[in-house]
Each structure stands twice: as structure tokens, then as C-alpha cells.
Amino acid sequence: MSTPASQFKEPLESVRARVADDLRAVVAAESVLSDIESLRPYECDGLSAYRKLPLVVVLPDRIEQVQEVARYCFKNDIPIVARGAGTGLSGGALPIENGVILSLAKFNRVLKIDAQNRTAVVQPGVRNLAISEAVAHLDLYYAPDPSSQIACTIGGNVAENAGGLHCLKYGLTVHNILKLKIVTVDGDLVTIGSDALDSPGYDLLSILTGSEGLLGIIVEVTVKLLPKPECARVIMASFDDIEKAGNAVGNIIAAGIIPGGLEMMDNAAIRATEDFVHAGYDVEAAAILLCELDGIPDEVEDDIESVKVVLAQSGYTQMQIAENEAQRQLFWSGRKAAFPAVGRISPDYYCIDGTIPRRALGSVLNKITELSKEYGLRVVNVFHAGDGNLHPLILYDGNVEGDLEKTELLAARILQLCIEVGGTITGEHGVGMEKIDQMCVQFDSLELTQFHAVKEAFDEKRLLNPDKAVPTLHRCAEFGAMHVHKGQLKFPEIERF
Amino acid sequence: MQTNLADFIRHTAEGAEADSILRSCVHCGFCTATCPTYQLLGDELDGPRGRIYLIKQVLEGTPPAHATQLHLDRCLTCRSCETTCPSGVRFGRLLDIGRHVVETQVGRTVVDRALRKLLRTILPYRNRFGPLLRCGQVFRGMMPPVLKKMTPPRVAAAPWPDNRHQREMLVLNGCVQPAIAPNINSDTARVLDRLGIRLITTNDGCCGALSQHLNAREEALKFIRRNVDTWWPHIEAGVEAIVSTASGCGVMLKDYGYLLREDPGYADKAAKISALTRDISEILETEDLKKLRPNTKLRVAFQSPCSLQHGLRLTGRVERILTSLGFSLVAVPDAHLCCGSAGTYSILNPTISSQLKKNKLEALGSGAPDVIATANIGCLSHLQSEASVPVVHWISLVADS
Amino acid sequence: MSSDSAQDLIAAVKRACDRKVALCLQGGNTKDFYGREPCGEPISILSHSGIVDYAPTELVITARGGTRLTEIESVVAEHKQMLAFEPPSFGSEATLGGTIASGLSGPRRPYVGAARDFTLGIRMINGRGEDLKFGGKVMKNVAGYDVSRLLVGSMGTLGVLLEISLKVLPVPKVEQTLMFELEQDQALALQNDWARKPSPISATSYREGVLHIRLSGSEKGVKAARARLGGEKIDHGRKHWHDIKEQRHKFFSQSGPLWRISVPPTAPTLNIPGSALLEWSGALRWLITDTPAQKIRAEVDKLGGHAVLFRGGDRENAFHPLATAVHKLHENLKKAFDPMGVLNPGRMYEGI
Ligand SMILES: Cc1cc2nc3c(=O)[nH]c(=O)nc-3n(C[C@H](O)[C@H](O)[C@H](O)COP(=O)(O)OP(=O)(O)OC[C@H]3O[C@@H](n4cnc5c(N)ncnc54)[C@H](O)[C@@H]3O)c2cc1C
Ligand code: SF4
Ligand code: SF4
Prior knowledge:
The structure holds 3 protein chains of 3 kinds. Chain A is of the alpha+beta class. Chain A has 17 helices and 18 strands. In chain A, the strands form 4 sheets. Chain A has a 7-stranded antiparallel β-sheet with strand order 15-12-14-13-17-18-16, sandwiched between helices. In chain A, strands 5-6-10-8-9 form a 5-stranded antiparallel β-sheet. Chain A has a 4-stranded mixed β-sheet with strand order 1-2-4-3. The radius of gyration of chain A is 23 Å and the shape is globular. Helices cover about 55% and strands about 5% of the residues of chain B. Chain B has 23 helices and 8 strands. In chain B, strand 7, helix 22 (about 375-385) and strand 8 (about 390-395) form a beta-alpha-beta unit. The longest helix of chain B is centred in the middle third of the chain and has 20 residues, at about 215-235. By secondary structure, chain C is an alpha+beta fold. Chain C folds into 2 domains: about 5-170 and about 330-335, Uridine Diphospho-n-acetylenolpyruvylglucosamine Reductase, domain 3 (2-Layer Sandwich); about 175-255 and about 255-310. Chain C has helices spanning about 5-20, 70-80, 95-100, 110, 115-120, 145-150, 185-195, 220-230, 235-245, 295-300, 325-335, and strands at about 25, 40-45, 50-55, 60-65, 80, 120-125, 130-135, 160-165, 170, 175-180, 200-205, 210-215, 230-235, 260, 275-280, 285-290, 305-310. In chain C, the strands form 4 sheets. In chain C, strands 13-10-12-11-15-16-14-17 form an 8-stranded antiparallel β-sheet, sandwiched between helices. In chain C, strands 3-4-8-6-7 form a 5-stranded antiparallel β-sheet. Chains A and C meet through strand 9, helix 7, strand 11, helix 8 and helix 10 of A and strand 7, helix 6, strand 9, helix 8 and helix 11 of C. One iron/sulfur cluster binds near residues 37, 48, 75, 76 and 79 of chain B.
């Protein structure tokens, strides 16, 4: 293995100028950014607490250019960080000081729609929602719908294995794609997967999905499309207690119903969101559940009745069923806008992504409330309840000294809680830079070594988004968690990142 | 978002305002999705979130250079990002502040300055723009195609009704509209006349938006004060509303109160004017439309101007009025995107502007309409230059019986 | 049953590394016929069996690799749940480990997902004899690479599956099978039309002019769909689908090499002589033919699919050859998991 992220002998500024010049031979001059002024807005993704200036930013618009850039970087040992829309919440697209940010945002065309096969071939920079919009006239849609779907790209979705509001029933990104074209670290164009339902050999599609830009640069995606459900209705149920709402989730599943979507918001989230969408959410409720049932109209009616019974048994205080499609959309649009809407009540938030068994929802939510008090930081909950995928948002103020550090400590405690109840540190946002130290808690050194071996199978020089997603053993040793034995977790007090 | 404004601005009122806007941005990137320039160019720097970052950087003390100015100039000020932003970031306001600071620090080339100055010296003045345009119209036949496209044909205005009514409203004349499309206000007067409202005009002038967007704030305030002075006697006499028939100007009028908030002689009056300002659609939607019997044979594609949907936040109103009157409206994809007119933008950023125009006309044409209706003079003349069907103000459709 | 069984297996793999001998991983030996010829010292996983954890409301079951598939199926059935990908067992001896390692899915696959789609987490031994856990028991997990899914269908060449966590689904309240008489092209076209609209179709098979479809869902849902689709209701539906899944259908008793051909569902009738049975709304085509492998694969390549020699014939090239770059990635991955090449070497491709 050659040295990754090679230590340049010459000063950074002159490397920057040289690399930029070289890359201008590959892509249009204005598609290479190298002045500090222009690099600054690329210093972070959706997690703005972590920032770093890249060496240069390059914005190709043809696959051959991506290949050329990769070849150049490979030859010169320059790391590459791919970037889609920069909505990631784990610092996956956080730049590396001596690395190139390779933006795929200009690749924003839908290349082919095959209605009969129910697939679409799209470029990686196409926005998630734009796919569904492009096929809406055929009564088809692309199922995974992250809350950020208006803005996030399909390339970013694949790289993170993004989930969404309707994943409980329709699956994650990995369940809804068929084929990828990737540019490898040394500039080869490789097709992974196929137009058929399966492919020969190892399931490389799975290993690439969620690989956070560490294994290859995604330059084309073939997605599966689903027929729009004939009928979809959403129930909004209010609870006067967050634990009751949490338990209602498990009860619905236990009744043998798999809702199209099952989401939860607590009071603070409801209020912040209502302020933006005016959806008619119950702003008095301690928590609301949004439960969508879809399918054939008759079937949906049956399911609604069953869900109503379960909700009654779970102790709801109010219930409303969206009267029409417009109202249904409104209920969901509020949920989708919930994170940024929280920006109305706090200058900054820190989003956690732990996933836990559903049976632990109620108790974990209670524990989070306790922790929130302990740390003196407000926590807002809005999340994919059906999947057990929590998104506690810790509210803090980046301008107050020490607030972020305190927030990180609380976040670590919450993640620790998730692992304790048998969950994971990230359900859909990825590890990126943000949760890299928690990886040392979730995996032992052998497992991490295996991950590194996988990385090397694709990228021996470790040039693609290096130092993200999988911590080095050295880092973990410093983090001081390596002695933790899996299964019987005895956590050392987790310190700040 | 974390901020750390530099000393030069930290303690000013603008600094405080900018800081609070910056801090309300959580960097989610939702706004990039609906930003016309980001959609075309795919560069973070050409989207709202990037522009916010560029401005933040300047306000935090990094001296800007050409790049920042370029990307801020490329912003259409369409404020689509504001509609999209769940966090309530007032981008338009931040941009105003940012542009001003950047312009003071970077300056402009002689040519650029001259062009901007020229626009500011001609467009806002009816007595300058009008004759120039008429001159152009006379020679339209002899012009090269490019110029011809930019020079709209002359439109005749129907006579202004002269009936007395109990109810009175005042309409803004503004600057370019009377020259390009004098029919819009007279059509408005005819429609209101049928509803029992007399519409009066005064010797007002440009609403000030043009100067404001070209960063000539003092000049803008001069225009505003002049209009306030002109209208004040009528307001004291009890006009019910100040009607705007160009949504771009409407946004500006509704901002008068804010812009003059620190001017003791004008603050109250300006606030009153802003409170009285109504887009013509806001007037119609509360009236009994049964009194109107427009000819509804035409299939209409409605182009919702940014100033109407993002500035005034009146999305869907005109469409509802037209539908309730019996017009059939065709679906228009990507209705939230700017047509590229954006005041003087089409002149200053012709490449982006014409691409947006092309896209917009394609979207408008996709439902095969007989006519395109809009609500703002800027969009009207911009689209008209290349549209294959007539482009009119929607009120003219309503007036046509 | 004891956790020692895992330690035994780990020790065995380590020993194999030391001795530089290949191991042939064995479960119930029901899929011996599949892939390239097994070779190496047999090592049985059977003793490492048992259900570790099953929480019906979580929709997750975790069991050891040597657990009989039948045991798992009957336990979940008690709670009106199922392994929705309907894995074929090819005999009562089939184990969960073998099922996941071969990655085969049954009739319901196109409508709900494949084995890999339901795999949430695994515990495995890699070729260095290391005990590793990936994924988890929750619905979503993106911490680290998705090694669990990579192992699905890897034919034991990357690791010994010690434990597997699978997502389960509620059993549909009602299932009904309908029959239609149609020409193949018509049947393909019709199925693709159906697939364009939401419908509770959960399996299809086509053979010699007869299309069978299964509907699954609520009573009303199935009734409504039936009214729309038409066709004739048949009573022996359960047996029909079981026979298809387990290859007990008389089609499979014909002599000659059996090919499993995976194509986009809209691919036309294959231009290859032989006897065919179609599943998965046209996306899976079983073909019994003596046509040479090369010819079959050339034809299938054109359609964007791949062909596996499933039973019989020359097993040397059972799996569809890989593009050079993809083959290289396979070699690299094999090395990453099993550097000494002790785990089922050559079961998939030569050297892998
Ligand atoms: C308000 C808000 C709500 C969100 N809700 C959800 C949600 O409900 N579900 C969910 O799953 N996520 C959610 N996210 C997170 C985020 O939107 C997703 O992770 C999304 O998939 C990121 O896409 P992107 O295009 O922004 O990628 P980026 O942030 O640009 O990049 C993300 C990662 O992918 C890599 N990458 C990007 N493009 C490529 C490519 N072409 N090839 C290789 N690697 C690439 C980057 O290197 C990086 O590691 C939310 C984010 C926000 C801000
Ligand atoms: S005002 Fe319009 S052009 Fe400017 S950043 Fe916002 S959306 Fe983009
Ligand atoms: S949508 Fe609002 S909060 Fe999000 S990045 Fe844009 S301006 Fe900031």
C-alpha cells in the first residue's frame, strides 16, 4: 500500500495552483474552483459544524471527465471526495485538505425511462424527487423518499443507502436499484448489477450501496420504479405522552399491518413545522403519529379500521384522517420539512440517527428526555418510527462557547443507549466523519480490519474519501474503546469526538 | 449556523439583521433544489446556500473578490429559495445586505458601472424610457432581429372608464409599464369599474425596485419618498387600497414601510402605504366575480411571476380566479422557476436569462395553450419576445368580454 | 447447540489456514448440485444450529447457520409470519446458512424482495478464522459496508455463516391462485401490463400455454384484483407454488441440463431451443436445453441478463462469466475475506 493522502513537500497553495491548472486541462476552466473564496462554500455538507477547505473543487459534466479526473488523482496520489447535493448529515462529503471535491451536481439528467420494465436510468446528480416527478405521468414513482428528497441526489442516496418515510414497506435505496455505473479509483468505468433482478457473482450492488464514496464514484444509476398505489390515506393520531405514541408503533406492527409509512413527531417538532406548512397538526399533542396505509381502496379501508382499533387501545387523544390527496401531501410535506423547520426555534441542531428495536422506542424516548434534562439541552424528536430509526435533534447554539462540545457528549450518550438496546449508531445517514469514533464501539478491531480489507479490494491506495466511515485501528486505540467486548458492552465514558 | 461577524459590521443594525438571518440557516440545502441558477449550473456557489455562505464569509471579514460578486450577481432575486426554506431564512434581505457590502468592497469595472448606470438612468423614468421605446417601435421593422426581439410591439390601451363610484382605489403607474403595456392599467380600471370601484391614477413614478436591485439604495429611497408624497393626499382622502398590477412593483410597495422604517418623516406614511397595497388578484378574490363575464374561450397557461408567488406569496390565487371565471388552465411544469426576466437581469446576465426563458416557454407551451397570461410587466415583455402565442396580463383576459 | 460449536468451526478454519487446505462447507447438502463442483475437506455446520432470537413484533428472526430451514419456517408460521422470499429448500435437510449462502429466492421474489433484501445482519467466520459480526437486528443499518448482503449468494466463498438475522413479514390473510390459457408472448405482455399497475400479484408461472398467478392480501384486496384480472380460480394453488419453488413440478423432471436465466421482465421469448418454464412475471426463465453454454449466454447477454447452469451439464462454467473489471473485483474481495483460499475455493468461479 502506498502512502495515502501523500504529504506534499511543497506548500499547499502551490499544490493547489498546480492541481487546479492540471485539472483545467480535463474540464472547462470555470469548472475547477481553486480560489479560497470559492472553495469556502464547499467546506461542509448538511452537517455544518464540521468544516474543512478542500484542495480544489472540480465540477465535471461528462463521465469521461470523471474518469480523467480519477486517473489524474490516482497517478498523483490525490484523495477524491465525491459530492452530490451536500445534504448529508454525517460529514460524508466533508472535504479533505489535500483532496479534490468531485461534485456530481452537473450530472442532473434523467437518461431513460422504461415504463414497461418499470426502470429509469438517471445520472447521479438527479434529485431524488425529480425522478418521481419525471415518471409521474406514467403513474410510476421511485419509492425511497428521504425527507431531503427535494434536494438530495440519487448518487448521494446510493452512497448512503438512504431511507425515507416509506421504507418500512418499500425498502431502502438498496432494495430499489438495479444497476450502477461506477468510475473506479483508477478511472475505469465498471457496470455493477444488471437490468435483470439479479446478477452473477457477488452482490457488489449491496456493497457499493452505502459505501459513502469510499469504493467508487457513482456515475449512473438504474432505479426500479413502482406503480403508484391506487389509494393512499394517512391517519394522524395525537398522544398526550410520547411513550404511549412509541408503544403504539409496535402495536400496529404486532397487529400484522405494515403501513406504507409510520412517522412520529414530538411537540416541539410539531410546533416548529406547523409554523412553516400550516398542515393542521395538533400543536397541543405531546406526540403525533402519521400512519399511511396504501393499496387497493377496499384493503385500505380495512386497514384503517384495524389501525384505528390499535390506536384506541394505545390511548390516542385525537385522530384525523387526511380528507383528500392535497391534505395527505400536506401532512407529509410537514414531516419532510421538520428538520430545517426546527431552524425556526434554534440556530443549530445536531441530528442523531440511531436505530433501535421497535419494542425499545418508548423507553429510549423517555431516557432521551432524561438525558436532555441532565445536559440542559433541548432535544426534538421527529423520526421514522416504523423502522425504529430515531432522529433526536439536539438543539444548540454554535455561537455559545462549549455548546457544541456539550451537544456531542449528549449525542454520544444517546448513541450508546441505542447500542445498549441492541441497535445501531446509524440507520440511514451514514458514518461519515461524524460517527467515526462510535464505529470503534460498534465494531471490534477484527471487524474494522475486515472493512479495511474490503476498501482495499476496491481502492488499494485509499484515495476515495479516505479516513471516513471506517476508523483506523490507531484512531480507535486513541479513542480508547477497543477493549470493549462485543455483546457485553461495558462502555467507558465516551468523550467528545 | 454558527457565525462570527467582523467588527466592521457586527454592531450595525444591518449587521445584526444579517447575523440573525445567517443563524437561521441550518444549511440543509433544500433551497438549492428550487433555485433556477443552481438547477442550470450545478455549482454550490450558484445556489442560495452557497450564496449565503459567500455572504457569511464576507461579513465575517474575508475581503471578497470577483468570484463572490459574480455569484451574487447571478442571483435572480427570484426568492424561490425563501418559499422553499422551512427554516424561514429571509434570503432576499440578506442578499441586499451582502450585495451592498460586496459592491462597496469590490467595486465594478468601468463598463459594468456604466451599463448599470445607464439602466438606472433610463428605465425608471417614464419620460425617458417611453420616448426611447416608441422610437424603437417606429423603427422595429428595420431592426436587426436581436434588437427587434427586445422591443415589444406597441399595444393600444382601451379608454379609461370615467364612472363615479363610492369606492376608490389608486393604481401605481410605475415606470416601464405605461410605455410597454398601457392597456394593463386601463383594463384593470375597466374590470374594477364593473365591480363598482373607481380606479384613479396619479403622477407617481418608478416604485424604486430597479435602483434597489442595482444596489443604488439612496436612489431607490428617493423614488419611494416621491411616491409617498404623491399618494399621501389620496390616502388621507380615503382610498381603499393601492393597487399594483405588476407583482414586481407590488413586492416593493409592500416593503416601503420596512425600507423607510428609520426615516422619522416617512416611516409612518410608508408603513401605511405598505399596509394598503394589494396585488390586483388580492382585490378580485374578495369581490363578487359574477359581475364579470369575460370571454373564456382561450386555453390559458398562467406564468406565475416570482414576485407574485415567492415575493408576495400569492401562489395559486390568480389561477383560482381564472378558473372560477370559467377559463381552462393548462398545467405548467416547474411553475416555481423563474423565467429569467428578473428586472434588469435579462440585460446583465443574458446567457442564463435566455436559457431560463427557453425552459419557461417550453414548460408553458407543454399544454398547448392559446395564450400565456402573467402578472408582471417584466415577465410579460421578456416572454413575449420569443413566445409563439400572445403573452398578456391576466387582467386583460378578464377585461375582455 | 452450544456456543462451542462456533468455536469449533473457528478453530477448524484456523487449522485449515495453517495446514493450507481447502474446506468444503456443508449444511444439509441439498444444494450440492449448484455451482461449480464442491471440493476440499468437508466441514459440517449442522452442529451449529438453533434459533437465537425471535421477536415477532420486531419482524426479525436470528438463527444459527446450521438451523434447519423447516424449523425456522414453522416457528415463524406459528406467529402468522413468513420468510417472504420463499427460499427453495430442495429437501428437508436444508439449513439457513446454505439457503443464504446460495442466495436463492422463490416465487414471491419480484414482488417482495430476494434473500439479500431480507438479510439484516450476520455473524461469520472469514478465511482467517476470525469471528465477525456485521449488520444487526434492526431494520436499517448503514454502519460500515454492507457485508451481510455481500455474503448472500457468495456460495460460502467469503465466510462461514454462523448466525443470520432476517426480516420476516406477516403471512397474507388470503391467497388465491388463478389460471389463464395464453400464448407465451401474450402472457409476457399481459404480465408486464399488470405490473404497471398496483396489484396483489405475488407469484407467476408460465408453462405450455398456461399462466398461473397467485394473489396475496386482504380478502377484499384479493377479491377486487380477481374481479379485475379475470382468469379461472384453481384449488391446488399451494401445491402448485410449492412444486415450482422446490422444482417438483413435472417440468423439472425432464432430462437435460437445466438453466436458470435471469432477464429484464420485458425480454421477449428467448431465441433458444428447449423446454421452458417462466416465473417472476417473465424475469426468470427456466430452460432445459442442450444448446451450448456459449450460445445461450450470447443470447442472454444481448438482453441484459445472465444464465446459470443450474443442474446437470458441465459445471465448470456454471455461473455466467464476469466482465474483466468485475472479475478483478471478485478476486480482490475473495482475497480480502479469504486470503489463503480455504473457504469453498472455486465453488463460484475458478480461483474464487
Ligand atoms: C433535512 C434533512 C433531512 C434528511 N432526511 C433524510 C432521510 O429521511 N433519510 C435519509 O436517508 N437521509 C436523510 N438525510 C440525509 C441526506 O439527505 C442523505 O444522506 C442523502 O442521501 C445525501 O445525498 P446528497 O446528494 O446530498 O449527498 P452528499 O451529502 O453530497 O454526499 C453524501 C455521501 O455520499 C457520497 N457521494 C455523493 N455522491 C456520490 C457519488 N455520485 N458517488 C459516490 N459517492 C457519492 C459523498 O462522498 C458522501 O460520502 C436528510 C438530510 C437533511 C439535511
Ligand atoms: S433568489 Fe432565486 S436565484 Fe437567487 S438564490 Fe434564491 S432561488 Fe436562487
Ligand atoms: S433551505 Fe433555508 S435553512 Fe436550508 S440551506 Fe436553504 S436557506 Fe438555509
